[in-house]
């Protein structure tokens, strides 16, 4: 296990280096810069040229990359052009909101997907199974932004059950019990939308895996020994079917952050996803490149977590 982790971390180094080049080029090849289209006519144009010179935007792309890469290696991500604050401070400020959103959505995903998948798998081709399949296909067909808009309209505007934006009520003192309750309350609606949209694939996968395992020889052997259907499903079929689901946890982490980009934007939820959209739309290069590099690292880390989880839940598998 230790050798696996060490090898994967060493492999991350050249991959992150290659990703950093792609991220930097994608950011710099965009037309214009952070000042394009936002210049105040009353301000002398020389001021903006001085700012571009100060930020190194007039230097060649290779020189800019070398300076940026050197700063990243030393843990210096620079200052945001738009927010006039250190990039690291912005990420630290928004990260707890995205983590909370991710935890809520994952809890909802597993609480719903697991029982529905088991029920559908144990009663294949029944009315219950077809009903669950219909809901699955419906959830797969609905885009996240459409689901978010409908959720806001119904549960925020029409019913008034949840707030439609923000991460905490105004005026609450940070660190108090009411503050944390308010943060959780503001996260329920976007977390539910993000979680529900992720359940369909897991329900389908678990259902199909249970049906496939129920037809294998070891199940026929268990039935021939007189074991009850409940014991066969719970001890044999379900145990083997859950193994692939557990290994998806790493991918779940990445998908949550990826899905949060759209969900946070729709709900005006101040997390990492919305921060990335703001950085891209505002051509805030330091913030944009730092966040994209973070997402790249998170993708590599998710794969490592999946491999480790697979080795833990099934010791027969030896990861190389």
TrEMBL record:
GO terms for biological process: nickel cation transport; transmembrane transport. Residues 95-306 form the ABC transmembrane type-1 domain. One of its GO terms (cellular component) is plasma membrane. Keywords: Cell membrane, Ion transport, Membrane, Nickel, Nickel transport, Transmembrane, Transmembrane helix, Transport. The chain crosses the membrane at residues 9-27, 98-119, 140-164, 184-206, 242-267, 287-313. The keyword 4Fe-4S does not apply. It is found in: Cell membrane. Its main location: membrane. It holds the Pfam family BPD_transp_1. It comes from the Bacteria. PROSITE patterns: ABC_TM1 (PS50928). It is a multi-pass membrane protein. Belongs to the binding-protein-dependent transport system permease family. PANTHER family: DIPEPTIDE TRANSPORT SYSTEM PERMEASE PROTEIN DPPB-RELATED (PTHR43163). The keyword Oxidoreductase does not apply. This is Peptide ABC transporter permease. Coiled coil: none annotated.
């Amino acid at each position: 296990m230790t050798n696996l982790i060490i090898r994967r971390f060493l492999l991350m180094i050249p991959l992150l280096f290659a990703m950093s080049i792609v991220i930097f080029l994608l950011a710099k090849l965009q037309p214009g810069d952070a000042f394009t289209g936002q210049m105040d006519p009353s301000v002398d144009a020389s001021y903006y040229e001085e700012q571009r010179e100060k930020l190194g935007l007039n230097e060649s792309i290779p020189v800019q990359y070398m300076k940026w890469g050197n700063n990243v290696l030393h843990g210096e991500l620079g200052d945001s052009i738009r927010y006039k604050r250190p990039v690291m401070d912005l990420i630290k400020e928004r990260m707890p909101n995205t983590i909370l959103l991710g935890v809520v959505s994952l809890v909802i995903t597993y609480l719903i997907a697991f029982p529905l998948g088991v029920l559908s798998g144990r009663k294949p081709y029944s009315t219950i199974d077809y009903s669950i399949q219909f809901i699955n296909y419906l959830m797969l067909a609905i885009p996240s932004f459409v689901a978010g808009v409908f959720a806001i309209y119904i549960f925020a505007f029409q019913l008034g059950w949840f707030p439609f934006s923000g991460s905490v009520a105004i005026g609450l003192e940070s660190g108090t019990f009411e503050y944390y309750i308010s943060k959780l309350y503001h996260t329920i609606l976007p977390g539910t939308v993000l979680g529900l949209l992720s359940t369909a694939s897991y329900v389908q996968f678990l259902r199909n895996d249970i049906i496939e395992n129920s037809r294998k020889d070891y199940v026929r052997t268990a039935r021939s020994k007189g074991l009850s259907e409940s014991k066969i499903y719970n001890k044999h079929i379900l145990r083997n079917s859950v193994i692939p689901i557990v290994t998806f946890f790493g991918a779940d982490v990445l998908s949550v952050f990826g899905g949060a980009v759209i969900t946070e934007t729709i709900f005006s939820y101040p997390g990492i996803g919305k921060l990335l959209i703001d950085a891209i739309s505002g051509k805030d290069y330091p913030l944009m490149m730092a966040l994209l590099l973070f997402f790249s690292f998170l993708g590599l880390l998710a794969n490592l977590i999946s491999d480790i989880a697979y080795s833990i839940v099934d010791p027969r598998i030896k990861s190389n």
